């Protein structure tokens, strides 16, 4: 209708009725407006549900017809409304899509629910946004709750996005440190105990030598004792 200027009656109020002294321009404009009014009314009645059309009081004015329908027959799909409310209250941030997109999604559900005459405050939306974030955002939540002043929705989104960017930078830095440590460990040759077995053998040989020396000493003592015991006998034979 806009392309053909048929919506003139919806945009402009009815001009004054023509009189015998009305100018040519006024007559021309009134005829155009009247044509627009009839066309709009016909289109609305033709495309409207019959049950609604029959209940609308008879009127020749497009604006009056439209206002009555708008005030009394605004259709609200309860199932659709419940769907948006459920999405608004149960959608949690998955940590993949990006927290900005997550908040925009919740704002969309919030706006659609409000369009269906569900009275939800912006403060409630901000609370839902914070509740939908994982525990990695707990420090930011504590800061928000501790402040006396309340952030606007735009401020909240900006701060949450900055917090996520900061966390990702820290994770990247930590991952780089771990990667460097693993890389350095792979480059270092394994520690070998060169000569360890020889040292063990040396200790073992030393132990054996000590044992042999102890045995030899005992044998020598026995030999000396034997000689000492034989001396008196030799003396007797000699006597």
How do the helices and strands line up, and which of them pair or pack?
Layout: H1 8-11, H2 24-47, H3 50-53, H4 62-72, H5 78-90, H6 99-115, H7 122-131, H8 138-146, H9 153-187, H10 196-238
Helix pairs in contact: 5-6
Question: Would you write up a description of this structure?
Answer:
The chain folds into two domains: 8-72; 78-181. The protein has helices spanning 8-11, 24-47, 50-53, 62-72, 78-90, 99-115, 122-131, 138-146, 153-187, 196-238. The longest helix has 43 residues, at 196-238. The model is unreliable at 219-232 and 234-239 (pLDDT under 50). The chain is elongated, with a radius of gyration of 50 Å. The chain has 239 residues and is an all-alpha fold. Residues 185-239 are annotated as: Disordered. It holds the Pfam family Retrotran_gag_2.
Quick rundown:
Helix content is 71%, strand content 0%. The protein is mostly helical and 239 residues long.
């Amino acid at each position: 209708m806009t392309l053909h200027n048929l919506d003139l009656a919806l945009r402009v109020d009815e001009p004054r009725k023509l009189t015998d002294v009305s100018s040519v321009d006024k007559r021309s404009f009134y005829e155009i407006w009247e044509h627009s009014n009839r066309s709009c009314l016909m289109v609305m009645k033709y495309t409207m549900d019959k049950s609604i059309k029959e209940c609308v009081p008879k009127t020749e004015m497009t604006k009056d017809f439209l206002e009555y329908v708008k005030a009394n027959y605004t259709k609200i799909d309860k199932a659709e409304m419940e769907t948006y409310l459920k999405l608004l209250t149960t959608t949690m941030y998955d940590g993949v899509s990006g927290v900005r997109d997550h908040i925009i999604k919740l704002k969309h559900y919030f706006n659609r629910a409000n369009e269906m005459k569900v009275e939800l405050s912006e403060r409630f939306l901000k609370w839902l946004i914070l509740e939908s974030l994982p525990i990695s955002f707990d420090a930011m939540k504590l800061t928000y709750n501790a402040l006396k002043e309340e952030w606007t929705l735009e401020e909240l989104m900006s701060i949450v996005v900055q917090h996520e960017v900061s966390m990702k930078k820290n994770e990247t830095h930590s991952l780089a440190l771990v990667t460097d440590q693993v890389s350095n460990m792979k480059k270092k040759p394994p520690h070998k105990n060169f000569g360890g077995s020889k040292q063990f053998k040396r200790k073992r040989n030393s132990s054996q030598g000590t044992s042999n020396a102890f045995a030899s000493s005992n044998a020598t003592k026995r030999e000396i004792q034997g000689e000492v015991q034989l001396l008196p006998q030799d003396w007797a034979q000699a006597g």
